[in-house]
Amino acid sequence: MSAGILGMGKFVPEHVVTNTDLEKRMDTSDEWIRTRTGISERRIADEQTNTSDMAFEAAKKAIHNAGLTAKDIDLILVATVTPDHPFPSVACMLQERLEANHVPAMDISAACSGFMYGMVTAKQFIDNNTYRHVLIVGVEKLSKITNWEDRGTAVLFGDAAAAAVMGPVSDGKGILSFELGADGNGGKYLYQEDQFIKMNGREVFKFAVRQMGESAVHVAEKAGLKKEDIDYLIPHQANIRIMEASRERLGIPEEKMIKTIQKYGNTSASSIPLALADALEEGKIKDGDLIVMVGFGGGLTWGALTLKWGK
Ligand code: UT7
């Protein structure tokens, strides 16, 4: 047996903020945002909806889609940099809301790479038979740390949650290879200070293009995949130009890259699982498909894995 995904769920707030809406709030244009980032609109949560509320909605669906109940969950991991509070963790709040058993629960802070860190952590516990069913949620309410006066960051981000239940799947399926990494020297390029996200966009861009491409190629090689074998690439949805660079580095055609950035913007830890959940809903991903996922984020951090879809 190996560790794979048994069920997915997602939640996006109803409120849509378009580029045209942002034009009215700051010195920017729909044209600039679309051509420089690929984003057309994003979802923004209302005042009453916090990170744990979105996590709860996505988690319920993932558990249901896995054919399980909350009592079957053995470990809860939440990847987020926008928890409701520094502590208790969103994972503990979620355990209570789900009425799960008194299983271990913790948040993972690896910014946009958080879901990759979560999946790889879950895999270790599943592989060594410590825990059978692991719930992992990628969730962000980035709007609460967005400085709406800073057009360099405000146009990029959105709020969302997406969740997976991981567990044992048949041999040959599930996670085939992975790579995680971090470089604290780059922490100064993307961080939170005085409540707000601060970013050196150009430095993050350069790092992301290099690291996403390299990590995607490494995990494909480790799994013995040739470019023709790859059915889908699911990159972190940060900027369409960064995503395209990683696709080109892998040498796969455009239609094999899952793209949701146009409608959700960059949702950090939620972005990769949200794209996967969307692709599943659209019926794109089939049993046995080979998927490469790759992300990067503040820290700086990165993570990639290959997954053969199915139980
Ligand atoms: O999850 C990880 C999160 N971070 C990222 O993924 C960020 C990675 N970086 C990027 O995606 C890009 O660097 C940005 C989208 C943030 C910026 O794109 P860029 O092509 O690197 O633009 P730039 O920062 O070099 O700015 C070009 C121009 C500047 O004007 P001047 O100096 O040439 O006159 C900016 O002031 O664009 C201006 N600009 C804007 N104009 C209209 C910057 N933001 C905006 C804006 N609307 N929102």
Automatic annotation (TrEMBL):
Enzyme class: transferase
GO cellular component terms, A-Z: cytoplasm
Residue ranges annotated for the Beta-ketoacyl-[acyl-carrier-protein] synthase III N-terminal domain, each copy included: 106-184
Pathway linked to the protein: Lipid metabolism; fatty acid biosynthesis
UniProt entry keywords in alphabetical sequence: Acyltransferase, Cytoplasm, Fatty acid biosynthesis, Fatty acid metabolism, Lipid biosynthesis, Lipid metabolism, Multifunctional enzyme, Transferase
Domain Beta-ketoacyl-[acyl-carrier-protein] synthase III C-terminal, first and last residues per copy: 221-309
Pfam families referenced in this protein's UniProt entry, alphabetically: ACP_syn_III, ACP_syn_III_C
UniProt GO MF annotations: 3-oxoacyl-[acyl-carrier-protein] synthase activity; beta-ketoacyl-acyl-carrier-protein synthase III activity
Region called ACP-binding, residue ranges: 237-241
CDD domains xrefs: KAS_III
Principal localisation: cytoplasm
Biological processes annotated in GO: fatty acid biosynthetic process
Record's catalysed reaction(s): 2-methylpropanoyl-CoA + malonyl-[ACP] + H(+) = 4-methyl-3-oxopentanoyl-[ACP] + CO2 + CoA; (2S)-2-methylbutanoyl-CoA + malonyl-[ACP] + H(+) = (4S)-4-methyl-3-oxohexanoyl-[ACP] + CO2 + CoA; malonyl-[ACP] + acetyl-CoA + H(+) = 3-oxobutanoyl-[ACP] + CO2 + CoA; 3-methylbutanoyl-CoA + malonyl-[ACP] + H(+) = 5-methyl-3-oxohexanoyl-[ACP] + CO2 + CoA
Active site: 112, 236, 266
Localization per record: Cytoplasm
EC number(s) from the headed UniProt entry: 2.3.1.180
Comment, domains: The last Arg residue of the ACP-binding site is essential for the weak association between ACP/AcpP and FabH.
Function: Catalyzes the condensation reaction of fatty acid synthesis by the addition to an acyl acceptor of two carbons from malonyl-ACP. Catalyzes the first condensation reaction which initiates fatty acid synthesis and may therefore play a role in governing the total rate of fatty acid production. Possesses both acetoacetyl-ACP synthase and acetyl transacylase activities. Its substrate specificity determines the biosynthesis of branched-chain and/or straight-chain of fatty acids.
Protein family (similarity comment): Belongs to the thiolase-like superfamily. FabH family.
PANTHER family referenced in this protein's UniProt entry, alphabetically: 3-OXOACYL-[ACYL-CARRIER-PROTEIN] SYNTHASE, BETA-KETOACYL-[ACYL-CARRIER-PROTEIN] SYNTHASE III, CHLOROPLASTIC
Quaternary organization: Homodimer.
This protein's name: Beta-ketoacyl-[acyl-carrier-protein] synthase III
UniProt lineage: Bacteria, Bacillati, Bacillota, Bacilli, Bacillales
Gene that produces this protein: fabH
